[in-house]
Each structure stands twice: as structure tokens, then as C-alpha cells.
Amino acid sequence: MANVCPYLGREIPNGAELGLDAQRVYHLLRDPDELAKAAPSFNSIPLIDAFDETGHEHIQVSAASPKKEIVVGSAGTDAGFESPYLRNSLVVWDAKAIRGIEDDTRREISSAYYYCPDMTSVWNVSVANSAPSASNSGQIALLASPILNRPGFGGGSNS
Fold first, then answer.
1. 3-state secondary structure the chain
2. d(Cα 19, Cα 132) in Å, to the nearest integer?
3. Do residues 79 and 40 make contact, with C-beta atoms less than 8 angstroms apart?
4. Which residue, 52, 63, 87, 115, could crosslink 57 as a Cys pair with Cβ 3.0–4.6 Å?
5. pLDDT digit string (tens) for 10-33?
6. Per-residue pLDDT tens over the stretch 36-45
């Protein structure tokens, strides 16, 4: 989702090298232009049901470390940016994950992504300290609840 999200300095890639205070909250813009450019990287990525409920960690999966026991589906091949959302289809084939979606215990998703923070960007300076650029996806996690209001975590629904 294109919006401004709070991140602790320690959560920002290369935060120490950028001179960021690890405990300070920085407000980063998820730039709509960057999301549009990154949309194709959100195609055909794993959907996992193993999100750390504290909201601080996606469990990483890759071809080298697939963690098949937590992969419950996949993103589609039609990712696109429709302001303010990054949209894509999903397929879920795991019975437990399907039950969770049907009984509302898994009602949100969160995409892991990588980005290069641009701390020189100026976009409504009173609100945003940075604009992430060059985003690329990792995987998508099923969540039990929204993570937007969890302290120190810059995720959210439809992200």
C-alpha cells in the first residue's frame, strides 16, 4: 500500500550506515511510483502461514530453503499497482489455511519486501523522513490480525 509507515531505525536497511538512531521512529513513504515499478516482483511468490505473531519477523523462504511445511499457497501472476494498493491474485491450497481464512483467524496478509531507503527524499517533510526505492518482494504471510498499529512495525494490511 502506498502510504507513510513508522519504522524503527534498526528496521531500516543499512540504518546504522545511514547514521539512524536504532530506537527512533522514522516515517517512510511507500512511494507509489516505486511500488508500480516493483509490482512484477510480487508475482509467483510463496504464501506462508508462519508469521511471527509479534509482528516483527517474516520467516524467510527460498529455493535453497523452501520450508515446505509453512508454504500454503502462492501469489498469482497478475500483480499490478492500483493506487494506493499493490494488488495480485492468490491461491491457497492448504486446508488449515483455508479454514483460517473462512473462520476469520487469518484475515490479513503482509508482504515481505526489500528496499533501498532514500533518506534524501522530500515528500511532505512534516510527515515523511524517507521514501523507500527499488522495492522487491520476498513472500507473503497470512496474519491473524492487522499489524498497522503494532509499535515499531511498519507493515499493514494490503501491503
1. CCCEEEEEHHHCCCCCCCCCCCCCEEEEECCHHHHHHHHHHHCCCEEECCCCCCCCCCCCCCCCCCCCCCEEEEECCCCEEECCEEECCEEECCHHHHHHHHCCCCCEEEEEEEEEEECCCCCCCCCCCEEEEEEEEEEEEEECCCCCCCCCCCCCCCC
2. 16
3. yes
4. 52
5. 988 999 999 999 999 988 888 888
6. 999 999 999 9
**Residues in the chain with pLDDT < 50?**
55-56, 124-129, 134, 146-159
Amino acid letter, residue 13? P
- Spatial contact of 135 and 115, defined as CB atoms under 8 Å apart: yes
**pTM, entire model:** 0.71
